[in-house]
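User: Let's play a game. I give you a shape written as tokens, and you guess the letters that built it. Ready? Here's round one.
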């Protein structure tokens, strides 16, 4: 539970004084009346009015102390919850607060970002979670611990070895080898414009440079290019290259998304959304190439 929602809130008005509002609690009201004996309740504003030119500053200090008191109380409850139902894990250390150390994992980061008051400590190289957030940490811990375990070097190595000879890995290697050929099946009677950026089913936005006229083998189409399986169409190989950032910027986007006919032939004029993705990728590639060329070791 995010207890910041229950912390007192301060409001100010034009007359000398300040308005303070907070969820009703008998002990909190008693502490408030003791600190501000001249305060009066306003039904209209549903707030306490504290008179005086320095009221705002004094109420600010009181609110800060109350927030600390609430945090200390919540931390005490969290410690009790930990004592009753502790987490035992090599990734968790108990000190003045709760400290989590794991290998890098996007899942762990996502879960910790959702925990109130959790923060990264550069000096400790650990995530710190106050005891007031223990219940939320406890709820998310199975996911955190599983992700941390999967990020261990031994586990990652085991998964790589298991996948090395798997069918999925073999398919991935074959697809990569096919991509490196820079060829693409095109309908012989409906070729794309040469030298202009067009979108494709498999390779995103590319530029076709040549159509040698070589017919496409059916076995290759079945394995890698399902769009080119129409029996009534002759397909030929087209040679392609990645579009440059300049070419992508100059490409005029299509007004509508490609329909079934464009997808069945395998190429179409890219939309603005498709161009934005391609431009972002091209910019990243060109920056890496430029940095590599400027590197002293290159």
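Assistant: Ready! My guess for every position:
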């Amino acid at each position: 539970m995010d207890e910041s929602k229950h912390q007192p809130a301060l409001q100010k008005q034009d007359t000398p004084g300040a308005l303070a509002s907070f969820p009703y609690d008998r002990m909190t009201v008693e502490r408030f009346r003791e600190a501000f004996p001249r305060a009066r309740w306003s039904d209209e504003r549903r707030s306490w009015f504290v008179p005086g030119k320095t009221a705002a500053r004094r109420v600010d200090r009181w609110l800060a102390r109350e927030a600390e008191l609430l945090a200390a109380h919540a931390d005490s409850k969290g410690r009790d919850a930990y004592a009753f139902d502790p987490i035992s894990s090599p990734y968790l250390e108990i000190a003045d607060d709760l400290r989590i150390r794991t290998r890098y994992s996007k899942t762990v980061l996502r879960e910790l970002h959702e925990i109130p008051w959790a923060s990264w400590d550069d000096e400790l190289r650990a995530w710190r979670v106050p005891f007031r957030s223990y219940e939320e940490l406890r709820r998310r811990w199975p996911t955190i611990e599983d992700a941390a375990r999967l990020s261990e070097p031994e586990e990652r190595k085991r998964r790589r070895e298991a996948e090395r000879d798997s069918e999925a890995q073999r398919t991935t290697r074959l697809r990569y080898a096919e991509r490196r050929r820079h060829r693409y099946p095109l309908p012989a009677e409906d070729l794309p414009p040469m030298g202009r950026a067009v979108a494709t089913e498999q390779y995103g936005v590319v530029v076709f440079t040549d159509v040698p006229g070589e017919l496409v083998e059916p076995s290759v189409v079945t394995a890698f290019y399902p769009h080119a399986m129409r029996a009534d169409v002759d397909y030929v190989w087209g040679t392609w290259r990645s579009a440059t950032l300049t070419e992508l910027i100059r490409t005029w986007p299509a007004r509508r998304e490609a329909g079934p006919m464009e997808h069945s032939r395998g190429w179409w004029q890219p939309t603005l959304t498709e161009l934005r993705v391609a431009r972002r990728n091209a910019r990243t590639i060109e920056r890496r190439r430029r940095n590599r060329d400027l590197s002293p070791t290159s």
